[in-house]
């Protein structure tokens, strides 16, 4: 994890392909991405599945406090006045944060899922449902709907 952050930090302030400085707003978005990624990875490493009676509450927390902020940051970056340009590493970290949280969401229900969704697909589902819990359920199919 530390390597992810260090590598991104070295490349965040300038665009190596063109040699120009990155927009400070884009740098701030990158900092937010790294913070989300660190938190998601820490939670994934420390996760203890909840009891069956606490599964819904814990899954809601994973969706609201984890999936929600990751998807919201992406939507904000794509709908503001300027299109935020993430570095490749920042984009990878943002998707990893999303998938860490979706993996934890599924584990709340005893499902071993190695989530592999794109941040864009999660954003599109959220924009259709207007509900982060429904978004997590529709992406992971956990719990099953009858």
From TrEMBL:
InterPro entries: DUF8055 (IPR058368). It holds the Pfam family DUF8055. Residues 28-144 form the DUF8055 domain. Residues 7-28 have a biased composition (Basic and acidic residues). Residues 1-28 are annotated as: Disordered. It comes from the Archaea. This is DUF8055 domain-containing protein. It comes from Haloferax marinum.
């Amino acid at each position: 994890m530390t390597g992810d952050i260090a590598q991104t930090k070295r490349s965040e302030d300038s665009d190596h392909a063109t040699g120009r400085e990155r927009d400070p707003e884009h740098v701030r978005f990158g900092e937010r991405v790294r913070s989300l990624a660190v938190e998601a990875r820490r939670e994934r490493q420390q996760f203890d599945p909840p009891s069956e009676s606490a599964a819904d509450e814990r899954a809601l927390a994973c969706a609201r406090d984890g999936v929600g902020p990751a998807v919201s940051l992406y939507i904000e970056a794509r709908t503001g006045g300027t299109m935020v340009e993430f570095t490749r590493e920042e984009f990878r970290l943002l998707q990893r944060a999303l998938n860490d949280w979706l993996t934890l969401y599924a584990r709340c229900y005893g499902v071993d899922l190695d989530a592999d969704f794109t941040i864009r697909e999660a954003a599109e589902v959220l924009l259709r449902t207007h509900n982060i819990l429904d978004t997590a359920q529709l992406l992971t199919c956990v719990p099953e709907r009858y």
